[in-house]
Amino acid sequence: MSNAEHHTALVTANTGLAKSLRTGLSSSLKTLALSTAGTIALVGAHHLGRKQYNANARLMDYAEGVTQALFTPTKVAADTKPFMPEVSWVSGVADLTNNEFAVVGIDSQRQICWQTAMPERVHDILIQPNQESSNASAAHNNGTDLHNRIARNNSIDVAVMGRRPSEWFWILAADSGKLKYSIKAEANRHFYGHACYSLEGDLLYVTENNISDFSGVIGIYDVASGYKKIGEFATQGIGPHEIVMHPDGKTLVIANGGIKTERASREELNIDSMQPSLVYLDRHEGKLIQQVYPAHNQMSVRHLAMHDDGTVIIGIQFQGERHLNVPMVLTHRLSQSEFTALQMDQTNPNGWHRFHHYIASVSVDSNRNLVCATSPIGGCAAVFDLNSGELIESVDLADCAGVAVYPSSTWHNSTTDKAESPTFLVSDGQGALTQIKVNIQTRPFSVKVEKVQQPYAFDNHLNVIERK
Amino acid sequence: MKKHQLAAMVLSALSAGILISCTKPNEDTQTTAKEQGVAAKETPTTPTANSNNTNNGVNIKTIDIDPNTAESYLTEVANNQILTAYQNVVKQSSALGSLATQSCQTGSAVSGEQLTALRAQWLELAKAWAQAEVVGFGPAMDSMSNLYINYYPDERGLVHQGVIDLIAANPTLTADQLASESAIVQGIPGLEEVLYANDSLTKEQCQYVVSASEALTVRLSNVQKAWQESPEQLLGIGGDQNKTGLNRWINSVLALVETTKSTSLDQPLGITGNKKGHLPAAAAGQSRAIITAKVAALNKALTDPALVTILSDNGNDTLADEMSTLLADASTLLAQLPEDLAQATPDQQKELYEKLTELTQVIKRQLMPTLGIQVGFNSTDGD
Question: The domain B238-377: what is its CATH number?
């Protein structure tokens, strides 16, 4: 090619490039303009829809939302922090001022290390039994190859129950906190805020209400099929609340609160005629094994904790006349004909009034035979000795509700004396996470408390994550 | 379709999707999320530690209260709101006891002016206690002690027969004996029952009024003494306790508004649902006086100069004014109603209820976030 030809070729190429650039620029500008117009149209349509249910919605909310997402520092970095190795407890939290709700993970230092926003106020939070123990249990109990089934789901699940009368529960992946499933109640059913996994972790049993006749039912949800409902049993009562699995692996223990509650208003409809009970059901067939009734028909059997030896700890909410002094924390074992009341201060004839007739949660330390019961209305957490059945101490804790044991690894691995190991963690609506240490080595037993403050209002229940 | 049009469609969808998914939440988020199934994702909620909250379109900045200011305010609350309330109720109870002793000393029936005077003094006592109920914690509330002062509401009407049976069984009842009896035969409702259910008091009924007033005075004096001795501990004053104290006090004020609305108005009058319970001081027909006393206590708490100064110094004069105006409106409304609120028209009852609802919302959505206080679960129903 001669120089002239080469020059001509270059000019032609440059001209083509320039033309191509102009065309590309023009095309890009058109794309940008069309994209902008499209975005405005879509956001505008969304805004109009939003306005239908929220008169205060503003277009600025979109820009502010993006700004917040980009520049607001998050307190936690869930994506980068594995859940199970860090978290010792999980709890619901609520900001009632702004109607914002979440589930948080709490580490052994009582710091919030993980958080998932929820669309409504939540109640109980259940941890699926872990692979190792469930694998062993499964092999022992029915030979199910649970290891593979859970492996298919990639992680252990956390079941988050909406507060009664919610129509929802949610399943989060324990290792990431990511939402796995949203489960809506069947038509004519709503949930009561509690559930329990089978010891193998393959089924979730959920307390539900049959809206048409107020009868209590247990919904059975299959984990492997994405929590598909596969059946239900009658609870033999009204208003089932907390449900726990008996250590025999075969028996469900259910607190039938006994109260018919009008769904929309939460108005109680049968206070005078209510009949609460504690029910033991065969989990495979739903057959009634035993039903026990409290001494007073207005002692609503509401919250439960299960001792490793099969003793059920029961927290009562009394709906009767306020001047009556009725026992608020009871125990029961399968086949016993009646409940056994724990003992408050025997010198005070109205000792149970300490709880203002309301127990929010109960927890049991099977290793040390200790029980802790909380009362937000009474503003206290009380520790009982199961061996003697007596109150050890009642600790003033305003608005406290959640209670759980410390993970057993805390004192198994502790270099300090067992007596110095913490026993219970209590959470409250003012944001305190209070460690309760019970020294059972000396008589009388002594209790020490130590608080860590968090900027959250902890809701009713706190659950421990045990790693076996 | 041309390439740039296709690209524009994709970009539009993407950018709109980002904008929509990041939309700043509002009070209807709950419903929205639910309608969408669930919006659970790893984004933090807005804890109270955040310095900005948006409520109902109002941007609220949490103020940072200087520890000395907080301590000074809480000391003022303990001395001028809590202690004075208990001092007054002790004074009124003691005055009723003295008047009853004086009226009953002849041993003859008490009626006419003497009974009217006793009733008037009882009303002063009931109003004083209604004001003291703004203190929803501490020794008066521990272990349901308040039931021995004011067993309200008496939904099953136990007080009426309880007092009749007690007087019949114990015609010479002493204060000490009464103190160990059931809560349903003690305190302000027991006294109300005897003073208002009878046109004249027998010797035995007179003895009951003397003993019940004395037992009540002892109980209330113990509460007052406890507050005098350790206000710092009972309220939470000083150092790390200031936050607790502030939380406790403002949540207690909120609880009084909520219980006044629900237990004292809504339920007995059936404003929003079925009727339940009864108006305060129903036997005396003086429910207006009791509600007015509660509103006065709220007014004293929420227009406290020390609180107003804290708000004003941080540019929240409007909030202080708003609460003051609402309380003034509620007082004006009450003044226009009959003594027995059951005799007011449904519209009047509803108007009063709604005024208190507005006040609840201002406290919850503006005052508490401004002061960095978490709404406690105590003020809502349990589960």
Answer: 1.20.1420.20
